[in-house]
Amino acid sequence: MDDPPVLELEGITKRFPGVVANDHIDFTLGRSEVHALLGENGAGKSTLMNVLYGLYQPDEGQIRVKGETVKIGSPKDAIERGIGMVHQHFMLIPVMTVAENIVLATEPKQAGVLLDYRAARRRVEELSRTFGFVIDPDARVDTLTVGQQQRVEILKALYRQADILILDEPTAVLTPQEAQGLFEILRVLVREGLSIIFISHKLNEVLDIANRITVLRRGKRIETIPRQGATQAGLARLMVGRDVLLRVEKEPAEPAEPLLEVADLHVKNERDLEAVRAVSFDVRAGEIVGIAGVDGNGQSELIDAITGLRSAESGRVVVAGRDVTRSHTRRVIEAGLGHIPEDRHLRGLVLDFTLAENLALEDYREPPDSRFGWLFPRRLIARARTLIREFDVRGGGPRTRAASLSGGNQQKVVIAREVHRDPRVLLAAQPTRGLDIGAVEFVHRRLVEERDEGRAVLLVSLELDEILSLSDRILVIYEGAIVAEYGPDVSEEELGLAMTGGVREEAVA
Amino acid sequence: MADTAEAPLLAKIRAHQVIARAEERPGNGRWSRFAQPRWIGILGIGLGLLAFWLALPPLASRTLVWPILVGVLSVAAGIAATTRGAGRVGWGAIVAGLAGIALGALATHSSTSHLNDVIVWSALIASTLRYATPLTYAAIGGMFSERSGVVNIGLEGDMLMGSFFGVWGADVTNSWFLGLLIAILSGMVLALVHAFFCIQLRADQIVVGTAINFLALGVTGYLFVDKYGANGAPTSIPTIPDITINSLKGVYFIGPVFGDLNLMIWLSFVLLFVSYIVMFRTPIGLRIRSVGEHPRAADTVGISVYATRYAAVVVSGGLAAMGGAYLSLGFVHTFDQNITGGRGFIALAALIFGKWRPLGAFAACLLFGFSSALGDRLPTYFTAGSSLPVLFNALPYVLTLIAVAGVIGRSIPPAAIGRPYVKQ
Amino acid sequence: MTELPGELEAPEAPEPTPEGTVPSVAARLALYQRAGGFVVPLITTVLAFFIGGLVVLVVTHKNPISTYKAIFNGSGLNWFFPWISHSDRVTAAFNLQSTLLLTTSLIFTGLAVAFAFRCGLFNIGGQGQYGMGAIVAVLVASSWTSMSGVPHIVLSIVLGALAGALWAGLAGILKATVGAHEVITTIMLNWIVFWFAAYLFGIGGPAQSSTQALVPVSNDVAPNTHLHVFWGSPILQGLHIGFFIAIAALVAYWIVLNRTTLGFEVRAVGFNPEAARYAGISVAKNYFLAMAISGTAAGLAGAIDVLGWKFRVGVDDIQGSTIGFIGIAVALLGRNTAVGIFFSALLFGALVNGTSTRNLDPSVFQPELASNLTLMIQGLVLLFVGADVLVIYLWRTRRKLLFWRRSAPTR
């Protein structure tokens, strides 16, 4: 790495109302280097890269690309300078084809006015051959797997002749095998002379792929270290500033009677296709069952069917002895199900309601909150006060709007609401998405506590670490069916294989 | 190597997709097979025929109510079928239903046994084209705006502006062409206001659209009363000419239909073709659609979301104004307050029904135009002194209601529609 | 109780809502309600009137100040000023009664729009629901003339309200079941009523007056169904007790939204239907109920107008009426709050009355022009209601900008 750096960020500072997202950050990138940017949620990694890509303007600092000081005012400028970005949430248009997505804004023209689709297709094919991908240019993006979509994103950047590639949390949506596939591609790109900035919060992957690692914490650069000699524990300590438990400490489970029974469940999705096929499993009191699977294999539909948000075609769902198959959500809640939904903003909270109202979202119908339809707001506020204290919710009181709270505190409100009703079964879907390490620890600890209280906990998550750390039993869902069951000591590799249908293949072959 | 590991996986995925599509047939029971869209459509066609048959001997219904009721049911069934994928059969049912109403009307009230059906039918179709054309312009305009992600409820107002300023412009400049240009300009200006509030200020698009309609109503009404108050619209304004094709006029059926159509109607056919090309075969169209589906993605490749949306909305205003100008200058040859009478909304419904594509929207416009044409002609078959014919004016609105009820949820709009884009 | 290890005391930044969430109409309006209170609607109104005045000046070269003054006098609001002469006061009283008559109707139609808004729905069908209420009320009140006064009045009003509820409920059901956009469905329903009235009361129509064969109007309502007039003369359209019913409706609106479980659900669905669904609330049921209740309010407006001062319904009464549409501006300007709706109904009532043919001096300004001016002002109010979100937003961020301009050095 003796060549001059291909990219230098000096003293980058970016402020938003009330918070300094980037505080005088220095960062360099060499040619043919993979430089990882590590930090927990809210540390400022994405902001820094958005500054580099022209989506934000820095308040202070300089950017030098290949030795030249530049001002990047928009993504167009960044692209012209050879900087390409693969976003965490893909910037692809689902209803358009791969070729259309790749050539967008730089379309080849025919007769000056028309779109030359054939030329576009040809160029995409050439490009994918050069780098060793396999992509069908005419496929509609929404028919591709997540891994393939990511490859289209990368092709987009390569098509625009990027030599600096920024990848924002690329493995968040991939299985371990797919992540390895991605790393293979990255190694090819690096051999061709590209430089890569790899944003992540996954310590093991960072150690796998990166040459250098820069750790950010609360907007500041803490340290930049070479991969040699770095350890997961060491990196975690740099990220958080203290020692962090990477695995939750818990007693072995002592499961009792089954509280959630799912038998031969068949569920259809919006397009009238079967999304859940003949799924059967139990969750017993005092155990945590984790469902692992790549996004889109039927988890959402399964949760919907259990919680009554969607009608199952056939099969049975029994909560605490009551048959709630195809019942309305309210009946399922009354039967003893607590549901921590996947997206707290969209589904968990009414952001414009106060904390008191949010906490009463399932109780308002019954005394003492209301009687014969008449509401008693003071009762709501009193309960909220108790729960806020019990769950240590910071950032406001019963009359504060939920939107003013931080992510971790918002999730605490959701958990408080679900748990205080003393449910027999607790269903947690992606409970720690977007939360910082402190909040993640809280949620994990809380889930184990609920298990120890004798509840049946069903955990559905895309984060394998979380599943492995918390579950007493692990089920793998693939294409709507449960294809494997493991104990908590299963290897990530085997899990990953099952998640992509590896188990099935062996059975067929 | 990456691709060798990929190939079997890709093949597996493709295979699963094929299987999945084959499994799409719903229902497990024997009878649920008949709930399929195809059968609903066939039912609709049957109902349409029934509507007509009701009026003939031996049943010889003397009131029009029964054929209309059955005909409306037939149209509803047709719409249900179309939106669930059985397109051809569904449209067949719609046509059968409308035909059933029309024929039923003719049969119940014809006193002569020698009906010159050809004359009646060709006049009806020509009338359909005339009624449909304002809708067509507005619907295509709406397509541009909505495909870019901005809901344009203000189409009604843009149309009204075009109607008034077309007449006023033609009057003042003594040229229909300049009047048309002034009309288009007025629509674009109003749409610019809509664009500014929706895109720049990120106000609620439906509230702003409603505001635009009120504004247009007030401004055109105000200016109309101020300029023409006591006497009403001038009768001698230069109007958009009809195009007479003499060679065609003698031809059996096509002659009466196409021989004497207004210039704007022919222009609307051209517009359909051009708008299809632009939207689906040019880079401009690709960018508009990208902005409407995923504005942030478009932004990250350097497309200006704001500029694209501004342009699309202004164009939609201009096109809607063209439709309005045709209405006043080319069709009824006059102006009165609120002359557009909800047509802008019907055009919007036509757009949704047509799945935001030019040809589909045009077909829907023809449907609504036909109902207006029917409403225009059917009353002549009623005894004088009854107020029943007045109800036919409600037919286009009833149909729109059915269409909107039947189609929403099945017709997928641009993904980012209605959401203001925040550039960071 | 788990203690959060190392949780810092520094205030954590509130999490921004991700782009995937669509702020509902109710959520955006929640923003208005929280901020600005009284000042922002005031600014909006002033701005709308200002621009309206500009239009008057530029297009007709008339003095906008004297125009607005004439409108003000025509509205009777000058009655509140103690210094005007006695004869002026008599006229003013008369005008004020007419204004308050309109305010009564506008409170109802404003409530109709506001209640639906709170549930995230845009009810533009107030005009059609008003019409249905009026039609049913006049039919009921002009039939069964042997019925005694009070039960007849109650029956007419209740059935009229119910008619409005059903008409709106139709749109509500369509929204709840197939998700049909209520803007288009309610507008279509408006136009259907438009022509339905022409059919009913037109010459030769089934409900056309049995005494006046050449006038497209309904029968008169039974004399004992007229609502009692408590201020002014019944012969000269004084103010009737419907005004108090309107005030009661405002109170009921507040109570329902803030003190009942129904209101809780409606607000939850309005702010975030998904979260409401996940908590077990039936979104479809609430969409239907919100529309139905909205329609009830608009239907009430129609019924009370018929029994209060119209006493008969002509085709022109339905086709030429705009009360339902003005209700939209009333609700939005009044921020969907009870107090706001009252004042904004008063404002628009004054505006409409002040510009009516009866009250506006034609030498100052032509009434027909003035009614169009009113339309423009309504449009402008709606426009600026949308824009003042930005004003509020800028106001808040200005404060924050000022805050850390003081705490951190700028470049």
Describe it.
The complex is a heterotrimer of chains A (509), B (424) and C (411). Chain A is of the alpha/beta class. Chain A contains 18 helices and 24 strands. Chain A is globular, with a radius of gyration of 25 Å. With 424 residues, chain B is mostly helical. Chain C has 15 helices and 2 strands. Chain C has a two-stranded antiparallel sheet with strand order 1-2. In chain C, strand 1 and strand 2 (239-240) form a beta hairpin. Chains A and B meet through helix 2, strand 8 and helix 6 of A and helix 1, helix 12 and helix 13 of B.
Alpha-beta classification of chain B? mainly alpha
Structural class of chain A: alpha/beta
Task: Give the strand order of the largest sheet of chain A, numbering strands 1, 2, ... along the chain.
Answer: 6-9-10-3-11-12
What are the segments of chain B in which pLDDT stays under 50 over at least 5 consecutive residues? 1-34, 111-115
The CATH topology of the largest domain in chain A comes to: Rossmann fold
**Average residue pLDDT of chain B:** 79
**How much is the average pLDDT of chain A?**
86
Major sheet description of chain B: 2 strands, antiparallel
Which CATH C-level class of the largest domain in chain A is it?
Answer: Alpha Beta
Can you tell me the number of structural domains of chain B? 2
Kindly state the number of beta strands of chain A: 24
Numbering strands along the chain, what is their spatial order in the largest sheet of chain B? 1-2
Distance between the termini of chain A: 47 Å
> How many distinct helices of chain B?
17
